[in-house]
Amino acid sequence: MNGAAWLLESRPGRDDAHIALVCRAGGAGTDADAVAGAEAGAGALDHLSYGELRERVARAGAAWRARGLAPGEPVAVKLPDGIEWVVAWLGVLWAGGVAVGVNPRVPAAEWQAMLDEARFAFVVVESLGQDAGTSTSTNMGASTSHGPGTRTGMGATAGAAADEVRPASPPRLVTLAEARAAWRAATPCAAVARDDEAPAFWVHSSGSSGRPKAVVHAQRTLRSIAMVSTQRLGIVPADRLFGSSRLFFTYPLVNVLLAGLATGCTVLLDPAWPNAAALAAAVRRLSPTVLFSVPSLYRDLMREGHAAALREAGLRLCVSAGEPLPARLGRRWREASGLPIVNGYGTSETLVLVLTSAAPALAAGKARVGEPDAPDEPCEPGAPGALGKGAGHEGDQDGREREEADEGQEDALAPSPGVEVRPLDAAAAAAGEPTRLELRTPTLALGYHDRPAAAAASFTAEGAFCPADLFVPAGAGCWRFAGREDSLVKLRGRWVDLVALEQQLSSEVGELREAAAARVADADGLEAVALFFVADDPARAQARLAERVAMLPPHQRPASLHALPALPRTGTGKLLRRELAARAAAELAASAACAACAPCAPFTPAATFAAPAPGTPCEPCAPCEACASDASGAARTQWATAASTRTP
């Protein structure tokens, strides 16, 4: 088969005149320009029907073949979102190559590492200046090693067919202007037939747990790409799909573009980078019926007063993925917008959302849904082992207990249609303890490009993928997200879910914009938790946090609080928890150099910690607010004593 040809072929019930793509014209511009232009109604919308898209992709495929692209060679599409992005990406598949979407704003060091590992045959860029001094100067070197890998017994990569060899020279840059000219001049060609298991495209993992990995997906995955969209989300050809994230990110690539084309929907594109104002303007301008976004943007839409207007623009359903959706945030969204929101969990290795909100939550919002594989009854609230939830609250009279039980139901996820889920540690699951899951789906990746060790650690011989995320049973075949392996820590003999902790504190302290917890070592080398937060008024937020932290059980209390201008994230918006842990460790080491800081360590802002240079007198740190305002004076006296007896 050829995946691009399969997506775009004429089918019963799909008219070639039906609009496939709609995009705001005028190029990427700046984020501010995009918002201003959309709000003013300026700028035309480009439309492309399915018949026109198929012809353009066939021309692009012919142009790639004329340039010498060989079957199996990877091509990077490093462009802003738009119709040209789609034509270039699908054209690579049509010509038998392997398409790879790349963040056009990828940091130079990460891009260089990607180039060295991927050995792209071509890179499509907006202009030569975009990659000056990067890909043009990269010495890819001659290579006779194998091409894009496939998954074998234990997930290692194996050599591909003889015609699938990596280029032996640096990637050739193709500017968007050159590509457009070549497409116009080319005569449409037939799609190059490929084996079902031949690589079709790569997506890159988020990099939240290390250097991003190129995840290799086969041609056959495209036949199943729309199963979850149609059978769980109830998406139909009349829908207009829009994603707030850019197409190089797996989430919108799969759920908006590929599933949208496979279903016959209209896919809406906007080159503007996402923020609440730009997203609200794009919804008003493009009138989507289904929105795919992330929890942080749904939160920002509410904060900036945009939520209520989205339904008026024609939106009927919201989907949230990319990061955990707190049950309280989901409830607030429904109240503010009047729209149902589906919580989903997926990975770059599985492509689709393998776990999604159970059907009753959708039905309550009157969203169109298909027949789910999950049971008709909602997942049981307060199921045994649900972290932070009680079990069996029969006859609860307390409103807070009922609310917690409702949340337990709302954040429970059921296996999506076509997906098989099993606990990796059945004993842990039976005891209600966190466990990784084995996920089986028709859209499972072949493996990682040139990462056999990583593939062996994540893919099983039986054809399942085991992400590093942890889940606990939620009853009725459902699961509840319990964080990644690096976000669940045992303190004082009890489990602490860092994700739940940061969500709890964020919801209780209104001054916070966002917060994140990280596992660190305290001054004695024992495991502890540090909380990092972003706030418009850091001092006020710090004081409120200190109050809330003091009310937590001892094992849940963060050992330190740190104000930051922004949380570190990947290019796709995933939190880099390991960077927070490294920052906390460095600040702890710096604070240990000044004995005067010791009494204030649990609640001293990071800015007050400063290790003296060798041979320089140690200036006393100012006491933190908790010590300075201590009514008994004990803490203040302790700080003053430590300051007077400090040693450089």
Please supply descriptive tags for the structure shown above.
eleven-stranded mixed β-sheet, 648 residues, alpha/beta, seven-stranded mixed β-sheet, single chain
Summarize the SSE layout with pairings.
Layout: H1 3-8, E1 19-24, H2 31-40, E2 45-49, H3 50-66, E3 74-78, H4 83-94, E4 98-101, H5 108-118, E5 122-125, E6 150-151, E7 157-158, E8 172-175, H6 176-185, E9 199-204, E10 214-218, H7 227-231, E11 240-243, H8 250-263, E12 266-269, H9 276-286, E13 290-293, H10 295-303, H11 307-312, E14 317-320, H12 327-337, E15 341-346, E16 353-357, H13 359-364, H14 399-410, E17 412-415, E18 420-423, H15 426-430, E19 437-440, E20 447-448, H16 452-458, E21 469-475, E22 478-484, E23 488-491, E24 494-497, H17 498-508, E25 512-521, E26 527-535, H18 538-551, E27 560-563, H19 577-592, H20 625-628, H21 634-644
Helix pairs in contact: 2-9, 3-4, 3-6, 9-10, 10-12
Write a short abstract of this structure.
The chain is an alpha/beta fold and 648 residues long. The chain contains 21 helices and 27 strands. 52% of the residues are buried.
Descriptive overview:
- By secondary structure, the chain is an alpha/beta fold.
- The strands form six sheets. Strands 2-1-12-11-13-14-15-16-17-22-21 form an eleven-stranded mixed beta sheet, with helices on both faces. Strands 8-5-3-4-9-10-20 form a seven-stranded mixed beta sheet.
- α3 crosses α4 and α3 (50-66) crosses α6.
- It is globular, with a radius of gyration of 26 Å.
- The protein starts with a helix and ends with a helix.
